[in-house]
Please model this.
Amino acid sequence: MSLIARDPWQMLDQWRKEMDQVLGGHPMVRDDATRVVGSDWMPAVDIKEEADRFVLHADIPGVKPEDIEVSMENGVLTIRGERRHESQESTEGYKRLERQHGVFIRRFALPDSVDPEQIVATGKDGVLEVALPKAQKQQPRKIEVKT
Amino acid sequence: MSTLQQLHEGLDRAWASLQSGWRALTQRASHALTRFLPGDRDRDDEDSRALWAASPGWGLLAAEVREDDDEVCARLEIPGLEPEAIEIQFVDGFLVVSGEKRVAREERRGRYHVTERAYGRFERALPLPAEVDESRARADYTHGVLCVRLPKHRRAAARRIPVRGA
Model:
């Protein structure tokens, strides 16, 4: 076995790519738009592309669907809300506290193909589903070359 | 300073910051970090199998346990489950919650761009801070949060013991 079988710079590059993947992810969530100052926690999401739409699922347990705000502006989808404590119970008596409370904000840059007028959001059992239908395909326009 | 030295120091700093972040994360969330194993349906259906392969395999099931004079109240964040798919047991002073998070049946074929949510079978055991009467346990599931209320055993409930003088 040779210890110098691989070019260290190549390894460093590979490591950088892996770190990029860990810290960055997909282009849809990679740009800094998804990291929002003032967000206390971040819900985990899945984004799936189907033939005629995108579907986003976000785990937001402990927040009523009516307390989740979904908005679309300049091609950016924003999910925002707040997880409050279940009741006005005092903070005494807690033997274990792993849950995070407070404001969450997450933003996603959407592809141009999404029709912002047709977006539908539903909440059930702590999961938010946002259906983002793609706009009708634009017919390629042929431009005549004049002579 | 040579470029290599700068790179070395930069990496050292990045590593130290990564380590301290990791320590903070594990201190806060290590107990909530739960392994998700493939469920029965994930093995036979092609789409579920693909999703399970892409999903992290670990999920955070954050819990909250509160005790007052009469009862112990445990809350667990497990979004996206059918209430019937949640199993609750009591084993040697532990509350054991298990279940399976599945891909919704009506989902159509497609390609996943982002997969941060965990799927499959999970189990989480929470130590109970007092002796409880499990026969009187009540559980409900609202907005993805399971809430189990466990009345304390009468003998475990707080009791004043008068001290008599000789």
About this structure: Residues 1-5 of chain A have pLDDT under 50 and may be disordered. Residues 118 and 133 of chain A are 6 Å apart (CA to CA). Helices of chain A lie at 8-23, 27-30. The longest strand of chain A covers residues 76-83.
